[in-house]
Amino acid sequence: MARQQSKIKELVYIGIYTAIYFLVVCISTGVLKLTVPIFNSIMIPALNALLAGVIYLTVLDRVPRFGALTTIGIVMGIFFLITGHFPIAFVPELIFSLLADWLQHGTRGGKTKIYLSYTIFSFGLTGPILPLWFMKQAYINELVSRGKDQAYINHVFAAVTNVSFVISMGSIVVCSILGMWIAQKIYDKHLAGLRGTRS
């Protein structure tokens, strides 16, 4: 009975922190759309990585076993699938969350492992933007099939260059590291009573 109650509690935690993570994604998206006119969508994963570190640490401590990170990735992937994103936008979310989950719970290591797994996890949000560079024509065809005009398409691809790809991907790495560093400072100061897999 105690074991079953523990599993139910973990499922509740996963649900709560998945919802909070989704809210942070929405906040990141909204902030960029309001402040950055062109470059916004390809910077969403980086800004989210900067903001979501505390949520990541909380998930690791509350549910210290394989599956929680993957579940968050699955939920985000389903969201991408049902909200009109490019058809395979959900694939990176599933792959990167699963890889982060395996790295965090299937390998040995300390804080370095947390930084690495969080960085990998943060790349899950690249699903909607990677096709802009690697499947451009298919992406354009998808937009046309949805009735988008040439002006809209030009706006979507205005910032899609080799340079912007390097900036977008590089910023995810930098913001993941910085975001996790900030998160650990906050966590150690205010939430030190929650301990799980972080040692």
UniProtKB/TrEMBL annotation:
This is Uncharacterized protein. It holds the Pfam family Trep_Strep. It comes from the Bacteria. InterPro entries: CHP02185_IM (IPR011733). It comes from Paucilactobacillus suebicus DSM 5007 = KCTC 3549. Keywords: Membrane, Transmembrane, Transmembrane helix. NCBIfam families: Trep_Strep. The chain crosses the membrane at residues 12-32, 38-59, 66-95, 115-135, 156-183. The keyword Transmembrane helix applies.
